[in-house]
Amino acid sequence: MLVFIFQQCLKILILPIYVLAYFGLWDPICKKTFPIFMNQLSKLYNKKMCKEKEKLFHNMRDYADASGKLHLLEIGVGTGPNFQFYPPNTRVTCLDYNPNFQKFLLNSMAQNTHLQFENFVVASAENMTSLSDNSVDVVVCTTVFCSVKNTQAALKEILRVLRPGGAFYFIEHVAASRSKWASFLQQVCNPTWRYLTDGCSLLKETWKDLENAGFSKLYLQHFMAPLPLTVVCPHIYGYAVK
Questions:
Q1: Cα 166 off chain centre by
Q2: How far apart, in whole angstroms, are the C-alpha atoms of residue 223 and residue 217?
């Protein structure tokens, strides 16, 4: 009951957004403004999570093909904040469902000349039909599954495009343990949060989907990210091998 009361209070605070959403006007506005917001937020996130990203991506070169080349697909690439962590000469294919990220992405590409960029694909994680089976060595997702509507379908697509023995790297904020204060805050904020963050959910238990996806190996850790907002501090990170 207490959760419901606080949820309604938050809804009142952003009532104009709920009205716009009711008439179908909020989504196109959010699609255009969200990349501007993320351009700044990604810089803050990288600053706070730099050590975790360096640790996660340190062995990425191990998954290069027989010729030593590494073809990487980043899903939900956003503004390109992960580029700086990728090994030199990696061939990167960028994918995002929101085409409005492209202008920020081009700027990140220009700043990361150690990489080779293939193309920018506008598609959802659940439907990457333009990418061939077994076509990439590595797939990366960071803070993406919170906005994916069908996590199981997205993981199935990731397994499809990964070559045998390829790796999937991930960092995701997830639902807190129900015994924690953060869980109460997440439940209160979630209905409003998704309108402000282009469909992001605070209640995803993504680790369960990863455990059941069918990877041959899974290395996964839970941790509390050093972020200023308690609702997004519960995180998982790791990698899985096809």
A1: 19
A2: 20
Q: What residues contact 13, with CB distance under 8 A and at least 6 apart?
A: 192
In 103-216, DSSP assigns E strands to: 116-122, 136-142, 162-173
Q: Where are the alpha helices (DSSP H) in 112-167?
A: 151-161
Q: What does the block give as tokens for 27? A: 């989504």
Tell me the residue type at 51: K
Determine the Cα–Cα distance for residues 198 and 147; give it in Å rounded to an integer.
7
Report the length, in residues, of the chain. Answer: 242
What's CA 94's distance to the chain center, in Å? 13
- Per the listing, tokens 């009205």 go with 19
52: tokens are 């975790």
**Mean pLDDT (10-residue bins), the chain, 242 residues:** 88 92 94 94 96 96 92 97 97 96 94 96 96 97 96 98 98 94 95 94 98 97 95 98 98
Supply φ then ψ for residue 99, to 5 degrees: -65, -15
- Longest alpha-carbon distance in the chain: 60
Helix (H) or strand (E) holding 129: none
Q: How far apart, in Å, are the Cα atoms of 4 and each of 169, 182, 189, 199?
A: 36, 16, 10, 20
Residue 187 and residue 203: Cα distance in Å, rounded? 7
